[in-house]
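Q: Hi! First time asking for a complex rather than a single chain. Here are the components, and I think there are two in total. Is that enough to go on?
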Amino acid sequence: MAIHQFLTSYSYGDAIGNEALEIRNYLREQGVESHIFALFYHPKYSDQIINYLDYDKYSDPDNIVIYHFSIGSKITKKFLRVPDRKVIIYHNITPHHFFLDYHRILAKDCYKGRIELRSLSDKVHLALGDSIYNEKELIESGFKNTGVLPLVMNFSKFDVPVLPVFEEMFRDGKTNILYVGRIIPNKMVEDVIKTFHLYQKYFNKNSRLFIVGESRGFERYYSAILDLVEKLKVKNVLFTGHIPEDELISYFKIADIYLHMSEHEGFCAPIPESYYLNIPVIAFNEGAVKETMNGGGILLERKEYLSAAAMIDKIISDPGLKEKILKSQQDGLKKYFSNKTGKILLEHLEVLKG
Amino acid sequence: MPEQNNDSNSPFISAGKDIDVNEIMEHIKKRIDEKKESGVLKQKEIDEIENMELQPLPDFLEIPNVYEQHLFSEDIIKNYDPASIELESDGGGGPKGLMKKVFRIIRKPLMPFIRSMVRPINNELKAQINIDRKYIHQFAAGIEYIKLLHNTSNNLIVELSKLKIEEELLKTKIKVLEDKMEFLENRERAIEKKLYQ
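A: Yes, that's all I need. Here is the structure of the assembled complex.
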């Protein structure tokens, strides 16, 4: 028996792609044959990823095929046609209304995605959400056999030193605030900027904001964000774009606070990553954020930018509070170690074998 | 927009059990009040920032390429017939009842003058209608030409708008590249500094 995975797109640094890779590696370590099949992937990954149209060569009714579902795509049809036992891992679909003003095609794909999700409800053997929040959505969509598979987190990649050049450039006494994620409308990057602007203006002029993530496909949103930065005259905001992993890790390591104001999250991987690196997290309580925070960090219940800015100031200026937050984050981190997630996945799949 | 906890009395943050949320809230409130009292912070400014919305560039797809249908509906062109135009008759319209009678009495002695003044216009209009009837096909062709002109100018405006949007997006890209260049220059300097150390 082999366990294969279907993905709509595989790209470097993408949380779903990373998870698929981690699952594949874990399964191979356990002696299970496993491959990843995708619709879109960069040719340089062709040694790791196989075109989904070639799946027929691998298909077998004894196999289990896991579909990472996050958007409407033609891979769904292929998934439904194969005779293998079917499992989906639901990573959540961003509500289409966030994209209406910025990306009509994506808005359409997200809308279609939710329809496709409902159509899968009676055709898969098992549906797993990567959070309780996502599992709830699966149940609401009509899935009977559901479960939770926490996102596989590989923290070992963070066990490297900061790039010396980053030390030189950014360890200059400024308070570094970090946001990691794509520059897309549901992430509310404008709220991160507004909060930072108030913090910089009224609490700490010696501060800097890193916005780490790509904006490809959302140029008009990015342009509006840059316009806002200009209007507010915010200083020391660095948009890094898409960066290699070693640089991402360095940004995490030089950050003093992780700030997240997103209004839709199915999981939010940068939160446990910040926990692991001992960065106090302040995040807006929406979607699966509270569940991902797992009792750690500071949750914002309302969007009050000035109060959020004052909260950043309080954490920076009160080492005792920072210590308590970091302790709560360490407690919250315990559930995220990858060996446990791999075990949970195999336990779920064990039920299918029976 | 997600549902937010808008109860201003409830704490705006929540945290683990070891963290005293009320103490933090009190501290935050005190800090903000201090800044307000000292005049550093103005509520109006905060409100302005809170209400500030993003102003994205319009989407290409939202700009219609033709508006022919809206401007020259086929029904209007097909139903256009100069013969159906009626000139106002002497007895039609105008005030009614007692007022009408009064006007008629006043107008009666003036009728020869009115007729002599109106008749040339009336004749002119009738002649124009006859010309219209004769040249209706040329007139329809003229409508087609005007349609074409309108479409051309509309398409020009659309293309110019698209170019403007593209220019703005290119400006953004240039800004991004400039920022990257600046970052790389800083990085280069930092590497040099590190090496010389």
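A: The longest strand of chain A covers residues 3-10. Let me know if you'd like any chain examined more closely.
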